[in-house]
Structure formats: C-alpha cells, structure tokens
C-alpha cells in the first residue's frame, strides 16, 4: 500500500521529467538547430546564467499578475454576488459579460497603453480583465443554484434576502469560488505576460521578446519555463487553500 | 372570528396570468393542533397548497387566513420539511438543527449569549428522534433516514405552530418510514402543533392524520374530506386492524376514481 501511495505522489514529477527527457532526445536525434528549438538542458543552463535578470523580471511578472488577480477577486465576487442573487441584474449583465469576455484581451493592450502608458499599469489591468470572468460566473452559479426547497424553508422562517445570502448562499458558493480562483490565477499570468510582451520594458514577457530579437532561443524557453513554474506554484497554492476551506465539498475522497 | 387556525376561502390558483387553473376553488378549515393529510395523484397541486398556506405563493383568487390574519407574505412561524432533507453539508447535524434559531426572532438575538441553552434544546430534540450521539456528524455521514430525522428536528426546533410536510418520508425504505411515523406522532402528541402533510402514501395518511383530504387531478380540488377517528397512539398493530385497512381501501377507491376520471 505504502509503495502504491509513494508512486502516486511521484507521478507528476515522473511525467514532467519524462517530457523533458523526450524533448531532449528529439532535439538531439533530429539535430534540430538551437534557434528553432533548444534542448531543455540548454534552456535551464542559460536560465541559470541569466538568473539575476530572470529573477528581477519574474518578480515583476508575479507582482503584476497578483495585483491584477487581487482586483479580479474583489470585483468578481461583488459582481458575481449581484448577478447570482438577482434575476434582473443577471438578465442585464449577462450579454455584456459574455460579449466582453469574447473580446481578445491582447487587442485591448494598445488601448490601455494609450490611456496609462507602458509598463506595470497596463499589465495589471490586462491580468485583471482576463481573469475576472470565471470568478463572476462561478460565484453567480453557486448562488443561483440554491435548492428552491431550502429557500422555502428559510423564507417561511422569516429570513431576509441577506439572511439567505449569508447563511446559505455564500457558504454554498465557496467551492465554486475556489475552483474559479485556480482558473483565474493561470489566466492572470496569460494577461500580464501578453501585456509585457506588447508594451513593457520589464517582466518575463519583455525578457522573452528581447531575447528572441537577439536569437537567444534558450533564454526564451527559460522564460517560458519560469512562467510555467510560477503558474503551477500559484495553482497548487489555491488548490491547497480550496481543499482546506471547503473540506465538506470533497467528501468521500479520503486523500483530502 | 372563527375558531379554525387555517382557513382557505374560495382559493383558486394559476401560476401566471392566463394559465390554466392549477387549483380549482378550494375551501378548507383546519383546527389548531389538527393533523391533516392531503393525498392525490401527482401534479394535482398538493405542494402548491402548502405554498399557499405558508404564504410563499399568493392565491390568484380567494383568501388564506392563518391565526385570524389574512396571509399576505411568507409566514414567519412555519416549520417545513421536504422529501429532500436539504441539510447544509458544511454544518454539523447540531448546527443544521440550530439554523432556524439564527433566523427566527427573538431567538436570533439571543442565540449568541444563550448558546448552551439552545444547544441543549437541540440535543434533546435530536435524542427524541433517536439521533443522540450523532450531533457532531456531518449530513453526508448520516443515512437517508437519519438525515430526514435531522430535517424534521430542524423544522420543529423553533416550536412552530404550523408544520408543513411535503412527502417527507417518500424517499425512505418501508421500515425507516414507519419508524419515522411513530417519531412524528410522538412529537405531535407531546406538543400538539398544526400539521399539513402532503403524501401519496395512503397508509401514511391513515396512520398519522385526523382528517384526510383527497384531491382530484389537475386542476386540483378537494373531492373528499374524511375524518379519521382511529384511537391514538396508533402503532404497528393498528395497521393490521380492520378499521385501518378499511380506511386505506376507501381512500384507494377514491384515488382510483380520480385517476379514471
């Protein structure tokens, strides 16, 4: 049993290592030139060489991502609560939200640059714009799918709308909310890196753009790996928070 | 002034303007502390009747009077339980039972200060339905029958004058169901409250109710009002006696007529 469990724990690491080995082998066997696809070992070595620069740019990206994400959480929860608890707001806001979400956010970056200049601010706003939608949808869904019988039970006790929201709505929406955070944080990285690539002189997106203009492909891939690692770390963080705070929703799963 | 606790006067219901009638002209008088059961084919508006009396739905015509006042919005004194126990999965059984206390006045203002007293009350109620020792378990750790007992406790903890039961035992196995009949009868005999039980189980109606109403197909209307004078407390033996089986047969033939009509 213990062996089986150890193996299950090791699988994500094994698959990651497997991917790197496969990548390394393909590049070496087919003799792919480094300016097309560098090997992972080269990328990691170059990444180590430029660690000071990468560290600085990664911190910038992490900062803009988290700032945008934080705004998205606040905004998403408020809008989600409004949309989820009122049919009228839902009808009014839904087409706008869907329409807005269909607009590619990269197309908005030039607009943001006109308004706010280049650098940190448009990156934060892009991260926010791209990541609030799943939070709104999930919070609204959690609130709107309250069982009608339960609502009847509470209303016949004299519960106000606020009572129902506080006692049942929000606790019930928590698993939906935390699930959306995992999606939103990864989207926020997409937003900030897009903005940095288009309009910034700081951040991993900018680092990759300037590296590729110098044909330093290993450094480009080092940047990609750094983004992936940050994304996984944040995703895992919210995964842990989710499991801790909504244990009741993961019942029947002893691994939790 | 009348001496009945719940009164429906020429009540008709359509769900929205221009719809067919869901409930045809209905008149009912229920005394304080009376246990009534409403039986009828599915979709006959039995559940709508509960919503009308509890004020969750306004009648299209006619008036609903509870405790000498016309009902104009949700009543605040009602306990409700449904086929689905609807317990909150993030709360323990004890906290689920205490939920009404966080909402009903004056308890909601007293709960924090007198927590121990209320917990004690909830524990006693849980013990009376055989759930002692399960207070700190979560709903999913309980069987279906235990969840339904907890749901019954939640509907009674604030000692409502009016209890609405919408097929509360419908999803349970026969043994558990009959056990819960006894539990409900006991609770009701200790402190009589007015009960409106909606069910499609004729034996359940015959076992529990003082008065049984048989409703027609949609648009629902009351076809038969049958007094049930079997002595209380009724128990398993009662269900094998002639008067009980006669009553069930009689109800069954009414239902047959309704379905054939």
Model description:
The complex is a heterodimer of chains A (256) and B (261). Chain A has one domain (41-247): MetI-like (MetI-like fold). Helices cover 81% and strands 0% of the residues of chain A. Chain A has helices spanning 2-29, 40-49, 51-85, 87-102, 109-116, 120-144, 148-155, 161-198, 204-213, 217-245. The longest helix of chain A has 38 residues, at 161-198. The mean pLDDT of chain A is 89. With 261 residues, chain B is an alpha/beta fold. Among the domains of chain B are: 77-198, Rossmann fold; 202-261, no CATH class. Chain B contains eight helices and ten strands. A six-stranded mixed β-sheet of chain B has the order 6-7-8-3-9-10, sandwiched between helices. In chain B, strand 7, helix 6 and strand 8 form a beta-alpha-beta unit. In chain B, helix 7 (202-208) packs across helix 8 (242-260). Chain B is globular, with a radius of gyration of 19 Å. Chains A and B meet through helix 7 and helix 8 of A and strand 6 of B. Chain B: This is Nitrate ABC transporter ATP-binding protein. Chain B: Belongs to the ABC transporter superfamily. Chain B: Keywords: ATP-binding, Nucleotide-binding, Transport.
Separation of the first and last Cα atoms of chain B = 38 Å
Order of helices and strands of chain A: HHHHHHHHHH
Structural category of chain A is mainly alpha
Main sheet record of chain B: 6 strands, mixed
Q: What does the radius of gyration of chain B come to?
A: 19 Å
Oligomer: heterodimer
Spans of chain A with pLDDT under 50 lasting ≥5 residues?
none
CATH class of the domain at 77-198 in chain B: Alpha Beta
**In CATH, what is the homologous superfamily of the domain at 77-198 in chain B?**
P-loop containing nucleotide triphosphate hydrolases
Mean pLDDT of chain A: 89
Indicate the percent of residues in helices of chain B: 25-40%
Shape of chain B: globular
The amount of beta strand of chain B, in percent, is 15-25%
Task: Examine the secondary-structure arrangement and name the CATH architecture of chain A.
Answer: Orthogonal Bundle
Given helix and strand content, the structural type of chain B is alpha/beta
CATH topology of chain A: MetI-like fold
Keywords (chain B): ATP-binding, Nucleotide-binding, Transport
Protein name (chain B): Nitrate ABC transporter ATP-binding protein
Domain ABC transporter (chain B): 6-242
GO molecular function, one term (chain B): ATP hydrolysis activity
